Each structure stands twice: as C-alpha cells, then as structure tokens.
Amino acid sequence: MTVEPYRLPLIGITGWRKPASDLAGTAEALRHLVGDWFYADNARGVLGAGGVPVYLAPDADPRIYAGHLDGLLLTGGEDVDPLRFGRDRDSATNDYPPDPARDQFELDMLDIALEAEIPVLGICRGLQLINVAMGGTLHQHVPEHVLIGETAPADRHGLELVPDSVLARLYPADIQINSLHHQTIDRLGDDLWITAHADIDRTIEGIEHLLRPIVAVQWHPELLPTCPTDPVFRWLVDEASSAY
Q: Where are the chain's structural domains?
C-alpha cells in the first residue's frame, strides 16, 4: 500500500530547562544531567487541532528554525526577568527566579516568527513575554492570582471578551477559566490590544496584535477540560495551515 504524503503545519513549542536532580525518581547516575521540560498537554492541544508539535531545543541558534516552522507556541513557566522591561528585581524574584537564557531564546524565536509572518500563541508567561517584547511592562507579583497549590484545571472565574476580537469568536460568553499566575500586564506593549479581562477584577487575560496573527492568553487552556480540542489551539493551527 502506498501512503500519499501530506503536509501538516509544524508548531514550535518552547519549554523549561531544569537539572535532572530536580525531577523525582531520577536515577543517581543521571542526576548531574540537565533536561528540557515540555508539558505534554501543550503538544496534545496542537495534535488535537491537526498540527505537529516540534519541541524547540534552547541550545540551538534560533535562526536554524527560520523557514521550517509554520507557527510558534510560547508556553508558561518562569517569570520574565524584570530587567527586560526596565525594572529592578523585587523581593518576589527570590521565590520565582527568572531564566534569562530562556527569555533571550524566546524573544529571538518571536523575532523570527514576526519576520516570517507565522502565527504565535502565547500562554501565561507567553502572554507576558509578548507584551514585554512589544515594549510593555509587568506587575511583578499579584498574590491573589497565585493558585499553585490548587487544582489547575479548576474553573476560577469568567471573562469579559471584547467584541470582534479573535478570542470573542473562539469562546462562548460564559467561558470559565483557571488562574495559575502571579504576574500580570501593567503597561500594554505597542501594537497590542486588550481583548479579554477577568470578570472579577478586570485583570488583563487576553491580548492580540493589531497587525500580526498573534494571540495570547493569561490562563492555561492546556489544563482545561476542553483540551486537546480547545479553540485557541485550533486557531493557531488553522492560521499556520493558511500559509500554504
């Protein structure tokens, strides 16, 4: 039987770098190694939307990915270094230490995506990084949004969606989302618009680029019961598919 080749969009996914010793159950002989950590739920979201997830090795020169990816997913994780947006590191930095190398890699990947005009989805930290890349700033610590010790998929609050936005087209008005972050947008970056607020306190929960296919959400769609078919993953893959 001959299998006809077909093209699926390749979606680059960023991750964390951690010492192997931080991972429970690591064999003693391997504890000196480092590992790249990618949550499988993000890949499941891409697969569920019809795309192919590609884990991006942060040791690589970001330029080698240019021309190969059809979309980019900037995932959650460590804080964006406050030095990136002209602020001193405050006391909360000790509890949530940034990873400057990850910041640089993802900022470079975002530049490549912008140059190639491929779609970008930002999740949690990804939203914050996009805002900083566009010249915006962040509130470094918002304690009431830190729910690390609770069940992440739990619905926490609703959204106020801006009409005619991508997010308003993707989600029903009564959507309930989770909350797993302690940083939020302070000053909005250039060429971005706010397309979703938390209905409880007006925290910025969604932003979109005015000119480019860039959407970012503060919540974690990969942890909601709608994954792996959450609409925002479908948006990313559909936009990536439209390029060819």
A: 10-241
Write down the CATH number for the domain with range 10-241.
3.40.50.880
Looking at the chain, the number of H-run helices and the number of E-run strands are 5, 13
Q: State the pLDDT at residue 3.
A: 43
Helix (H) or strand (E) holding 159: strand 157-161
- Give pLDDT tens digits for 57-113: 999 999 999 999 999 999 998 899 999 999 888 766 667 788 999 999 999 999 999
Interior CA angle at 222 toward 218 and 228, to 5°?
A: 140
Q: Above 80 in pLDDT, residue 142?
A: no
**Phi, psi torsion values for 203, nearest 5 degrees:** -55, 140
Structure tokens given for 212? 């480019």
Helices (H), the chain: 40-48, 100-116, 125-133, 166-170, 231-241
Closest alpha carbon to 119 in 32, 210, 240: 240
Longest dimension (CA), the chain: 63
Side-chain half-sphere exposure of 134, counting CA atoms within 13 A: 24
Q: With a cut of 60, say whether residue 2 has pLDDT above it.
A: no
Structure tokens at 116: 């190639």
Structural tokens at position 214: 């860039």
Locate 120 and state its tokens: 């970008």
Please tell me the pTM assigned to this model: 0.91
- Closest by alpha carbon to 214, among 74, 105, 80, 61? 74
Enumerate the active-site residues. Answer: 124, 220, 222
The token duo for 71 is 């979309």
Q: Is the bond into 97 cis (omega within 30 degrees of 0)?
A: no
